[in-house]
Amino acid sequence: MVQSHQELAKLQIRLRRKLFSKYDGTVVPLKNKEALELIPIMSIDHIRSVEEDKGAMTISVTFTFTWMDERLSWNSSLYNGIRTLTTNRYEFHPNGIWLPTINLADMPGSLKQQDIFLNPEVDVLIQNSGTVKATIKSLVTTPCYFSFGDYPHDYQNCSFTLMTPYYADVFRFAKWGGVDFARNLMENRVTDAEDFQLIGVESNGYFMMMGSELIKEIKPALFSASVLPNKYGLIALILTAMTQFLFAVTMVTILPDNYNGTPIIGKMAFFLFFETIALIGWKLFSLIARTRLKKQIQRDAKILGTPNPESVQVLKTVIYVDLGLIAYLAVQSLVTIHIVYLH
Q1: Strand, coil or helix: what is 172?
Q2: Dist CA 277 CA 17 (whole Å)
Q3: Whether the Cβ atoms of residue 40 and residue 178 lie closer than 8 Å to each other
Q4: How far apart (Å, rounded) are the C-alpha atoms in residues 83 and 242?
Q5: Which helix (DSSP H) or strand (DSSP E) does residue 43 occupy?
Q6: What is its main location (predicted)?
Q7: Which residues 6+ apart lie within 8 Å of 100 measured at CB?
Q8: Rounded to the nearest 5 degrees, what angle is found at the Cα of 93, between the Cα atoms of 88 and 96?
Q9: Contact 287, 12 (CB under 8 A)
Q10: 68 — phi, psi (to 5°)?
Q11: For the purposes of burial, counting CB atoms within 10 Å of the CB of 136, is it exposed (0-12), middle (13-18) or buried (19 or more)?
């Protein structure tokens, strides 16, 4: 029995809906909390140019990255033997399939690292076992360190680095993989440019596990304090006391004999003034805290697979305080109107 293209398309749509119904593309696909291992393979298609004056070489390369995402596995027998799904990065899900962040470093003429997965030409293939394979074709300009002391039999080295922002206990490159440079695959590729010929490619992987050790140290410290910080403090204190005394004498002569304190309207004005200053300060703090905490939660969820509970709790507390202040100000406005009406 031969499936029609229409039936196959319907099955693929149903399979994609099933795979991505609860899929979160911001979470690293860890298995049993073990580090995700990614297999990198780079194939050199051809050398585009060698710029001796700029110390750079431009090559056309194909990157192939393979990793496991068990959330994207399925039983092929339930879908008439469909074993693979293939398309680009944007067609799977509104939030996108999880793709690693891999930066090209040491690029000449660029101060910023370039994420190669931001390339729109990312082809993704998913197998029913949960294996994900991403293929990217790109032009890469690498720095070269030219030395012509042995011309015309000199050897020049050009290199670049692939870096990730993840910790080694979350993500690392697999020990095998690297550069695909088999001679039988190079028949249709241009491996020389001008006076240079590509004779070999090497790749190495590095990662570092960082640890910490807490050491308790007690250091004696001396703290001294005095009421008057220096010799001018006593003079300033006497002048301030005299000013307060003169102010009190002046107020006694100005105020009427039946004066018994600040009117309630005046007290309310003072209270509302200082309350407004406090609310402005809180609102500035709230805006900054919300923005930074949301970014921190998103970054932790992407790198660690789960947000930091403390950050989530602090964000909830800030939101609850904001809601409480809204209710408080609504009640306060009614009370203020009532007091003003009575007085």
Answers
A1: strand
A2: 52
A3: yes
A4: 92
A5: strand 36-51
A6: membrane
A7: 38, 65, 67, 117, 164, 166, 171
A8: 65
A9: no
A10: -105, 135
A11: buried
- Going by their DSSP bridges, the two strands 122-127 and 131-145 should be labelled as antiparallel
Helices 264-304 and 309-342, axial angle in degrees (round to 10): 160
Q: Provide the residue type at 234 as one letter.
A: L
d(CA 48, CA 69): 35
d(CA 153, CA 254): 102
pLDDT digits (tens), the chain, 343 positions: 445 778 888 888 888 888 888 888 888 888 877 888 999 888 888 888 888 777 788 888 889 999 999 989 999 888 888 999 887 655 655 456 888 999 887 776 666 677 888 887 788 999 999 999 999 988 888 888 777 666 666 677 788 888 888 888 888 888 766 555 444 445 555 555 556 666 667 666 666 666 666 677 777 766 555 555 556 666 777 777 788 778 777 766 766 666 666 677 667 777 888 888 888 888 888 888 888 888 888 877 776 667 778 888 888 998 899 888 888 888 888 888 777 677 6
Whether the link from the prior residue into 152 is cis, omega within 30° of 0, is yes
User: What tokens were used for 162?
Assistant: 């692939």
- Is residue 126 packed enough to be buried (19+ CB in 10 Å), middle (13-18) or exposed (0-12)? buried
What totals of helices (H) and strands (E) does the chain contain, helices first? 4, 13
State if pTM tops 0.90.
Answer: no
- How far CA 300 is from CA of 97, 234, 296, 311, in Å, comes to 18, 55, 6, 10
State the Cα–Cα distance between residues 56 and 76, nearest whole angstrom.
Answer: 48
Quickly tell me which residue has 């690293």 as its tokens. 28
198 within 8 A of 57, measured Cβ to Cβ: no
